[in-house]
Amino acid sequence: MSDIEFHNREKETKEIRSILDSRPTLITFIYGPINSGKTTMVSHLIEELPADYVVFYINLRTKFLASYDDFIESLFEMEMESEGALKKGKETLAELVSSITKVAGIPITKEFLDYVFKDNKPKNAFSYIIKLFMEVKATGKQPVLILDELQKIGDVKVNGSLIYELFNFFIDLTKELHLAHVFVVTSDSLFIERIYNEAMLQGRCRYLRVDDFDEATTVAFLEEHDFTDDEKAAAWNCCGGKPAYLLELIRADDLGREVDRLLRMRAGELKTFLKTLKELGDKVTMKEERYDVSYEKIVCVLKMFSDEEKIDMWSIDEISKYYLVRNNILFLDPDRGIVKPQSWLDLLAIREVIADA
Ligand SMILES: Nc1ncnc2c1ncn2[C@@H]1O[C@H](COP(=O)(O)OP(=O)(O)OP(=O)(O)O)[C@@H](O)[C@H]1O
Ligand SMILES: [Mg+2]
Q1: The CATH number, out of the four listed (3.40.190.10, 3.40.50.300, 3.30.420.40, 3.40.50.720), of the domain defined by the range 10-209
Q2: Distance, CA 124 to ligand 2 centroid (Å)?
Q3: Which atom of ligand 1 is closest in space to residue 148's alpha carbon?
Q4: Residue 212 CB neighbour total at 10 angstroms
Q5: What tens digit of pLDDT does each residue of 226-235 get?
Q6: pLDDT in tens, 303-346
Q7: How remote is the CA of residue 68 from the centroid of ligand 1, in Å?
Q8: Number of the ligand closest to the Cα of 32
Q9: Which ligand is nearest to the CA of 244?
């Protein structure tokens, strides 16, 4: 359990609130580097929303998703009786809707479950959700669907690819029916790149970046935790605005030692990563073909960060880009056409390690 209070993310929260205030027309993809605070921001926003929004929030992170059935099970929240049997009580959608609490998975009763699971057809599940959302709307409330870590469904197949069925469903909910707001949250920037280049989503979605805190936000955050000016500077110079690292610094007894430890640890990981690649080599699969990863090219790409914080994503070869992003060293932002280290700490580690590579 975290004892650290949520630090307001004014700009991003405002953007989302203004989306929620208007009629649903586009799918919103919330993306950003690892551990930048996407899930925390979304969870906090949900708590603060007025009661006329009904949020269906599903986080796929901890779910095991190997098949279509796994996905459907993770989407729906079944009403259980105390003995673990499915509840039979609520027969109609109206009754079900009246029992919905503020945030939940998608509620379903046994009657509908049979229909939804029938014949492995995503269409059944989606038409049930549309009916449910219409019922919510009929009570004067606005449904909001949020899927966190959607990339986890990977290449699950149902006849075709499940992800395409889902995108069509999201387009239905937003652009066609204006029925629900749809937010997809992900920390996988290769997934965002795929989406960015997906023809069926052109003009049907928007991108909202939740990055590490900027300097002013970091300073304000650390101020809440009684950091002196020197301590704030030391924290910013080592970790930038990565909330997860800042938390470690806040909790540390000795700030200087913790800063050194974090940097030493990250540099060590990167050194091992490069040494392993140099000695054993590696391969990646892209577009169903296997390619060798070149140690020399990887070093060349990392050297570009010796005096830059971010680089043009078209200035590096696709295999190295894919490999470094897949291994969580670089973050790819297709919306701005850049790649940069996953954090300021990663940038420092890259600079340190690359000097003797
Ligand atoms: N605004 C904030 N105020 C205080 N702490 C925060 C804030 N945002 C994030 N954190 C803390 O930083 C850590 C990482 O946040 P979170 O899990 O939300 O990031 P994420 O971007 O969803 O990560 P991932 O990339 O793994 O999905 C958490 O421990 C969280 O408590
Ligand atoms: Mg998250």
Answers
A1: 3.40.50.300
A2: 29
A3: 27
A4: 25
A5: 999 999 999 9
A6: 999 999 999 999 999 999 999 999 999 999 999 999 999 999 99
A7: 29
A8: 1
A9: 1
